[in-house]
Amino acid sequence: MSSNGEKSMAKFILGFDLGTTNNVLAYASLEAEHPEVELLPLPQLVSSGTVESRTMLPSFAYLANPNEASGGALDLPWAKQRDFAVGEYARRQGAEVPDRTVGAAKSWLAYSRVDRHQPILPWGAPQQVAKISPVTASQRYLEHMVAAWQELHPEAPVAEQLVVLTVPASFDASARELTREAALAAGLPHDLVLLEEPQAAVYAWLADRGDHWRRALKLGDTLLVCDVGGGTTDLTLVTVAEEAGELVLRRMAVGNHLLVGGDNMDLALAHFVAARFAEKGTKLDPWQSVALWHSCRNAKEALLAAEGPAGDKYSISVLGRGSRLIGSTVTTEVDRQSVGQLLVDGFFPHCKLSDRPARRSASGFRELGLPYENDTAVTRHLAAFLQAHGPVSGQPVRPTHVLFNGGVFKADVLRHRLLEVLGEWFADSQAPQMLEGRHDLDHAVARGAAYYGWAKHRGGLRIRGGTARAYYVGIETAGLAVPGAPRPFRALCVVPNGMEEGTETDVPSDDIGLIVGEPAQFRFFSSSTRKADRAGDLLSAWSPDELEETDSLETTLPAVAGVEEDYVPVRFHSRITELGVLELWCVGTKASGRWKLEFSVREDAGEE
Amino acid sequence: MDGKELANFATISRIGRTEEHTINETPFRSAAERYTAYCIRFKNRSSRNISKKGLTLMARIWLAIRIFFLVLFQETVARQVAEVLEKRKLENKPSEAKPPAKPADKAEPKPAKQPPKPARSEAVTLLATLQREARFVDFIKEPLDSYSDAQIGAAVRDVHRDCAKVLDRLFAIKSIVDQQEGSPVEVPSGFDAGRYRLTGNVVGDPPFRGSLAHHGWEAAEVQLPAWSGTPYSARVVAPVEVELA
Fold this sequence. Notes:
Helices cover 26% and strands 28% of the residues of chain A. By secondary structure, chain A is α+β, with helices and mostly antiparallel strands. In chain A, strand 10, helix 5 and strand 11 (193-196) form a beta-alpha-beta unit. In chain B, helix 1 packs antiparallel against helix 5 (75-92), helix 4 (57-73) packs across helix 5 (75-92) and helix 7 (122-134) crosses helix 9.
């Protein structure tokens, strides 16, 4: 941040972790000598009319029936006459009233096949429910945290503080832009900084270690950040480099947005146990199935703990629904070994470094909805990630250390398994080790965000890296039009991978003719794997894995009086702001003038 | 002071004492805490005075001194005393404030006055939490006669685990002393009878030496949920559940 952009009235740095399943807000005083990061207690509804403080705000929104909301059952200390609830109560309702509960809004933000501004959530809910958009849902979670902050610190308005908001490293430019939009609508300041979640986890580790981090990591080391949350898996590589005699951290690569996480494991266990019940002739009704899912979450933690329950059997019960609890409770026993196999081998199987995740089934009639991963094997996704980011093609990256993040890794067995698999892959040299020090799996991202803000303001180690992706604009080539066949199509690199914050570049290319007076649309692509491309490179062929299409870009050039031509020749100019926001401009080559390209609203999306 | 007011003050001094217990959980540090400890020793005497003969002059002087210090050092007591004085002021001049109000009340059907939000007993809030998260009330209210131990055992595991989670979250319950049960412990002089319960051959003066029979439990914090429902639902431990098809 440039020095004139600093806010003089800021007293605190706030770190918001807007998660797929949970939100956390951490803060630190800017006046303190050392960064002392605290978690803000978040008061939230836990039941109708009952407010309790927790450190995590579950990312669920419950859209109540108007009758239910009257009488102030959903009121909060700072908000009366509410007709919706977010947090723990909404999460509970999600199990029993799914048609009125929004979940995983963040995954929808990253899903460019729908219009994220349209009220589409809860997905597939009946018409009577007043749906909300993924952007609005995210805004509500942030608003809730802002209000909780304001309750406790009325003297320090959020808009005047320094704010860091985390996003998955795998979020592309449009998902980041939508996150920013939700944040600004929730009252966060315009100079808020977006930070990638795995980097935040590294900052949390740095905050904990202080200057001793140099003992754990040395020049040339490569750190793998493995973040498996409730719904998503996010992979990042950070290397230790040297700059002007000082050790610096550099973010080298990020993985794709993988929709597989702890919830999949709970569900897998629930299916397994439901089959056991079926064998015994017990059929579970929908309510019991939900209760079973809940029991399985608890059972997973107990079964995967290093010191598990005594004996080889573990009983899982589903309590009766009515007030007759004992009489209608059903129970079955599972043995530890088979559950261990199911979860550990199902999600972290032994595999070869050359293995690849199974592809999605190629059905032409795939239902629109979140693209959950077909292959739930985190280790195979990891293998593909390491292979894709090797120094030379065909040679994998060799991490020396691993930093875990996300609630899933509370289970020792899973951490051990991941390290074991990594050890097998790199058997010829020293096996990757778990980074020593505290791994605060639930709160590290928010803590790290607050620490990062503090270090940015007061001076401290920062991870460098620039953009995690390269970006491309689709250009139709001129040529003879063939009826029925699309014109040949090329991708022009406008932002190279690793372009640093606060830099800009002209994109060398042939002139591109923009029609005046009507919107010009460009298809827009990103890639996390193509690292050698420079701005101006024109790709004519690529494999479908390499380039991912995201929201298209558009701009409208106003017709200029007195100019006869109906199109203007332009070239592109790209810029990454100090706050990490990507901006693309069209600059006239003959006539002067520049026009900003904006993400366009998809017209085809938003309907079921 | 008339009799009613004295009764009010007596209540306050009792409330004052309950406060004293919570304050004494930590070793005496401030003057206020030393003072309240001093009060405890006299508590039997003052209550005897009230119950048997009404208040003697000496008892009143003593009460005045106590109230003085309690008001000075304990904010809750100060607030309660202020309330009593305020109430007394209103009761002493009823002719001015009340009569005009009454006819108005009768004339109008009922003014849409915002009733003050009734607080719910925290005990009900705790019960509701235990029921919601651990099905505690369902479990305790169900007669066990017709079930086998295995059936009960199956249900109790879940109830037990979830109850423990609630207790940990709301009270952060921990043992008072760290020693192993059965090991020798010393009870310091000036110990608080609320923290240590002596059994067996209790003679002589502290410090006492003995063996630890129970390490005690203590709530490291109290984080009960706040409740904001209607008066009609203030005593609801679990709502009626109706599933709509």
